[in-house]
């Protein structure tokens, strides 16, 4: 199946509707400022330069589909901020895969140029033609420069931000029966690509100045800071900060940090060695700017808890801090049996 949609007429019509709406509503000065900044952001973002979207889908194995989506803009209109913020680098093999343990069930990696976004703020403030707002943004950026050492700290980043979740294949966390009884011990890690030690050193100094309860340890030969404060969670939580080559990493526990370091050293199997990853990535060009992976164990492990919440339909015990009514959809319509089949591997790349 293949679908192509030319968006030029749609975007032109949407832009006209937006102009008509903003001209018809009664606005105050502050709303006018927001509208001006919003229209400038939209026009400079590059979204309005999108000329077409193409989609294709083919079944490569029973119940396994390969889908492609392409978003097109003219080469002469490649200066939109969104392209610089989210895809200024060439597609490449993502180094995150060297960090992902085999029990990874969810991984997200995004290219994001924070420096370009930071430098865009004065332009948006200037678009309001309001000297007061321009001055406020100028002051805010001066404070950021003083406290966060911008723009030097932003320039020291490698512009790749990643998050991943692991579910231990052996150790389990026991939950109340109302939440399914048990789940594999979860782990969470955030990895930031860095060009030098400026941001890590800044964070280490701030933690030391605050007197955070932590101790320095060496984990598998890697210098780490481990937070020692007791955790209220039923699963292991001892936030651990460390550096691996050009990544600055926060792991939710010392155990996960040890697993990540061993994986990076090649002493523990990686996600890429699993049969599921090999099946999902077969035939794919894995060079990318962004990546999303969702393994079947993620939904399978959480399905009992989700099913219990659905069956409770708002009748959870008071010690479980979940307000069913605040969830913005009807959870009783969820089908856990369908959810456990869900798995996904997506690579997003900037093709010039």
Explain what you see.
This protein is an alpha+beta fold and 352 residues long. The chain is 37% helix and 29% strand. The protein contains 11 helices and 14 strands. The strands form 3 sheets. It has a 9-stranded antiparallel β-sheet with strand order 8-9-10-11-7-6-5-13-14. The mean pLDDT is 85.
Please outline the helices and strands.
Elements: E1 2-6, H1 8-24, H2 29-45, E2 50-61, E3 64-73, H3 81-87, E4 92-93, E5 104-111, H4 114-127, H5 131-148, H6 152-155, E6 157-174, E7 182-194, H7 198-210, E8 214-219, E9 222-227, E10 240-244, E11 247-251, H8 254-265, H9 275-281, E12 287-288, E13 290-294, H10 296-312, H11 336-339, E14 344-348
Antiparallel strand pairs: 1-2, 2-3, 4-12, 5-6, 5-13, 6-7, 7-11, 8-9, 9-10, 10-11, 13-14
Helix pairs in contact: 2-4, 4-5
The CA-CA distance between the termini, in Å, is 25 Å
Spatial sequence of strands, sheet with the most strands: 8-9-10-11-7-6-5-13-14
Which stretches of 5+ consecutive residues score pLDDT under 50?
none
What is the element string, with H for helices and E for strands? Answer: EHHEEHEEHHHEEHEEEEHHEEHHE
Q: In percent terms, what proportion of residues is strand?
A: 25-35%
Average pLDDT, to the nearest integer? 85
Classify the oligomer: single chain
Give a quick account of the main beta sheet: strands, pairing sense, barrel closure: 9 strands, antiparallel
The tally of structural domains comes to 2
How many distinct beta strands?
14
Rg of Cα set: 24 Å
Shape: globular
């Amino acid at each position: 199946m293949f679908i192509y949609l030319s968006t030029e007429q749609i975007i032109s019509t949407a832009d006209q509707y937006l102009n008509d709406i903003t001209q018809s509503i009664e606005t105050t000065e502050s709303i006018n400022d927001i509208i001006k900044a919003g229209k400038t952001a939209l026009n400079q973002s590059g979204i309005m330069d999108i000329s077409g979207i193409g989609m294709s889908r083919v079944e490569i194995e029973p119940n396994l589909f390969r889908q492609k989506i392409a978003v097109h803009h003219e080469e002469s209109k490649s200066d939109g901020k969104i392209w610089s913020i989210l895809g200024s680098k060439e597609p490449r093999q993502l180094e995150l895969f060297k960090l992902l343990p085999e029990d990874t069930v969810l991984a997200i990696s995004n290219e994001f140029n924070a420096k370009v976004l930071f430098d865009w703020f004065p332009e948006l403030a200037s678009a309001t033609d309001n000297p007061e707002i321009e001055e406020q943004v100028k002051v805010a950026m001066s404070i950021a420069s003083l406290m966060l050492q911008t723009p030097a700290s932003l320039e020291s980043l490698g512009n790749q931000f990643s998050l991943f979740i692991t579910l231990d294949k052996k150790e389990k966390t026991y939950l109340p029966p109302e939440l399914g009884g048990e789940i594999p011990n979860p782990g969470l890690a955030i990895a930031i690509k860095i060009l030098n030690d400026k941001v890590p050193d800044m964070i280490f100094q701030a933690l030391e100045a605050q007197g955070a309860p932590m101790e320095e340890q060496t984990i598998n030969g890697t210098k780490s800071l481990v937070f020692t404060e007791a955790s209220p969670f039923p699963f292991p939580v001892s936030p651990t900060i460390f550096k691996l080559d050009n990544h600055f990493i926060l792991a939710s526990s010392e155990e996960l940090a040890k697993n990540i370091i061993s994986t990076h050293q090649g002493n523990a199997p990686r996600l890429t060695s699993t049969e599921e990853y090999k099946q999902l990535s077969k035939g794919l060009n894995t060079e990318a700017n962004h990546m999303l992976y969702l393994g079947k164990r993620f939904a399978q492990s959480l399905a009992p808890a989700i099913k219990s919440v659905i069956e409770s339909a708002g009748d959870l015990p008071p010690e479980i801090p979940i307000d069913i009514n605040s969830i913005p959809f009807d959870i009783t319509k969820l089908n856990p049996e369908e959810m456990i089949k869900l798995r996904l591997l997506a690579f997003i790349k900037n093709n010039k």
